[in-house]
Design brief:
Helix content is 21%, strand content 30%. The chain has 227 residues and is α/β, with parallel strands linked by helices.
Amino acid sequence: MITITFLGHSSFQMEVGGKHLIFDPFISPNEKAAAIDVDSLAADYILLSHGHQDHVADVERIGKRTQATLVANFEIASYYGGKGIENYHPLNHGGSKVFDFGRVKYVNAIHSSVLPDGTYGGNPGGFVIEHEKGAFYYAGDTALTYDMKLIAEEFTIDFALLPIGDNFTMGIDDALKAADFVGTDKIIAMHFDTFPYIEIDLEEAKRKAAAAKKELIVLEIGQSITL
């Protein structure tokens, strides 16, 4: 079983194989996540899908305190290595690495990527996490892409964390197709309602998911579930 805590926007803390993973930590600048104490979060690994500020804002704050291993593409991992993150592991698209909690594969995403100071952030990606009890997909920021079908050919995906906020990423309609492509009926929603550009009609999204016979899990910030 995996414990998943929503930290707001696209940020999650997960306990996988006894290790704490944090994905795309954008917490302290997010007014909606004001109740989250960034300095109390446990982290053994920090996984970054791309370099945009709304995905990396708290990397140094968490990474330097916890000595967590940063997992990202080559450009981002190297960038934070130069900023004093001592533990990092670079990946690139199609590559995978076995860590002590499971295997991480870095998969394609269609988006853009630049770090907050304008440094080139390489190409964006997502992660498939394969652990002893199953596998899940963290999409990062992405459009719908047929490459997602390759994930279903290699893995049995228990659930997928997918953006539904539209405008900069997939909206709910494409997210439902993405769930079909990767072979899961369980979606954890992310990247919606944080900013005016990505505010959506959440009830309509839930109705569309129900009509498509998908389980759309919408967590409150700070809420934890076990899957």
